[in-house]
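Q: what sequence does this backbone want?
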């Protein structure tokens, strides 16, 4: 241990006072290095150096950027983003041990704008004395925009080095101005092998179970690791529960039994936030798995959502949308299946409706795909929003009153059922859009058949376009025309 670490070990790692022992009157509570066996296991065995940290080799492996920054004591403002239990707070504590800066531990859960201002004033005072302040903010996403803005001027002038930790996507939860001044480091969920290695270390560590003789198999440790879903804190908490509840032998040793283990890992808590980023990640995975015609992946992501507590009606709505957006007329039956699944979810709810959603998801995954309807609407939407709002052609307007009839509404309308082909060449688009084709069928599934029929219809209409022109009225009532006046036509008649 370096002399600096030895000095820090004499008092709080997070003391707000200086090295002479002076402390501001509103200093945060101190934490020391005294071993307290009453603490939960994850707190007792928290890593003290970078070499004790398990995982995150992409950030703190030899030669990696974050490790070089910490070891050189050149830490800049940063955000640690990752799921629970992957080492965000641990890395902040390691920085506290290996930096010569004044360090403050700050929680967004228990602190408000008043506390922020007090801490910032102290940090500014330290800056004027030539000393840096590192402010670690846990759960930074819980601060609102105004609270986050309070950090900006101090980060800007260098009064503080801000280290924030968040489980939420900082792109959505951290102010853009603050985010632009911070380096974002993404921490990943730990691998099962990492967790097994961590638990083996804890079983031998005096801060853990090193003073006890605990017998646990590799298979049992792997079961705990898989149950913990990459969460080191969860793995250690489960290990502690398993050891404490295992029977002790006559010689004082502890043997973990499969029965005890099964009781402690019987209910898995899935990583899923119905309003957070993981919600959108998994519904995206479901949607894209169906689009890629992969029913196995689609059913897995469906299970992840439903077992994580998602509203089945939300899933049913998204799957119903998929049926029209990504399948469409390639298999119109898909929409019927999805609507039926939605109705089943509404009527019987969870957990019975899981099989109905599975049927819909599997059907959509295996159905022929076409996004022609989606593309058709998007094309039409652009024209509707960006082009001049053309009036409805007179021939397809309704004329429920005499006045409207006198103005030409409905004039020259042709009733398709009166024709042998059940078709007329009467245009239904505004003149400026005549000939525009929004729907372009694919040759996928049944849509190929609809495409052939549409091609026949369009060819017939082009062939007979002149017939409609020759049968329309030439007489215009004043103000009745829906056509644009010809250039130079001062009275508005073409």
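A:
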């Amino acid at each position: 241990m370096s002399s600096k670490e030895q000095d820090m070990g004499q008092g709080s790692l997070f003391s707000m006072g200086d090295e002479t022992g002076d402390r501001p009157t509103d200093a945060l509570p101190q934490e020391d290095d005294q071993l307290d066996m009453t603490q939960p296991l994850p707190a007792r065995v928290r890593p003290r150096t970078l070499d004790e940290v398990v995982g995150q080799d992409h950030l703190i492996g030899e030669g990696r950027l974050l490790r070089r920054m910490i070891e050189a004591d050149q830490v800049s403002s940063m955000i640690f983003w990752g799921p629970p239990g992957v080492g965000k707070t641990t890395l902040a504590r390691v920085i506290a041990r290996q930096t010569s800066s004044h360090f403050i531990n700050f929680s967004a859960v228990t602190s408000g704008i008043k506390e922020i201002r007090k801490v910032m004033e102290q940090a500014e005072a330290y800056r004027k004395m030539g000393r840096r302040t590192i402010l670690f903010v846990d759960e930074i996403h819980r601060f609102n925009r105004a609270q986050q803005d309070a950090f900006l001027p101090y980060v800007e002038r260098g009064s503080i080095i801000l280290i924030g930790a968040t489980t939420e996507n900082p792109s959505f939860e951290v102010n853009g101005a603050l985010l632009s001044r911070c380096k974002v480091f993404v921490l990943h969920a730990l691998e099962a092998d990492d967790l097994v290695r961590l638990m083996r270390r804890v079983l031998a560590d005096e801060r853990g179970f090193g003073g006890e003789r605990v017998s646990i198999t590799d298979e049992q440790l792997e079961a705990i690791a898989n149950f913990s879903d990459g969460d080191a804190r969860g793995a250690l908490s489960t290990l502690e529960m398993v050891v404490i509840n295992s029977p002790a032998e006559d010689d004082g040793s502890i043997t973990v039994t499969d029965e005890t283990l099964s009781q402690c890992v019987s209910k898995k808590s899935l990583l899923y936030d119905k309003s957070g980023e993981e919600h959108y990640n998994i519904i995206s995975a479901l949607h894209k798995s169906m689009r890629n015609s992969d029913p196995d992946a689609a059913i897995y992501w469906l299970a992840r959502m439903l077992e994580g507590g998602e509203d089945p009606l939300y899933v049913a709505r998204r799957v119903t949308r998929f049926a029209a957006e990504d399948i469409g007329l390639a298999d119109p039956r898909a929409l019927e299946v999805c609507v039926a699944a939605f109705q089943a979810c509404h009527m019987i709810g969870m957990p019975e409706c899981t099989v109905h959603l599975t049927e819909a998801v599997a059907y959509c995954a295996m159905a022929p795909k076409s996004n022609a309807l989606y593309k058709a609407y998007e094309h039409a939407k652009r024209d509707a929003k960006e082009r001049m709002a053309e009036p409805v052609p007179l021939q397809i307007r309704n004329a429920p009153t005499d006045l409207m009839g006198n103005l030409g509404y409905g004039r020259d309308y042709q009733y398709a059922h009166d024709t042998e082909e059940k078709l007329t060449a009467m245009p239904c688009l505004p003149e400026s859009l005549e000939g525009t084709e929004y729907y372009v069928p694919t040759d996928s599934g049944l849509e190929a058949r609809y495409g052939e029929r549409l091609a026949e219809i369009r060819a017939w209409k082009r062939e007979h376009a002149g017939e409609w022109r020759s049968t329309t009225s030439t007489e215009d009532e004043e103000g009745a025309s829906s056509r644009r006046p010809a250039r130079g036509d001062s009275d508005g008649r073409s």
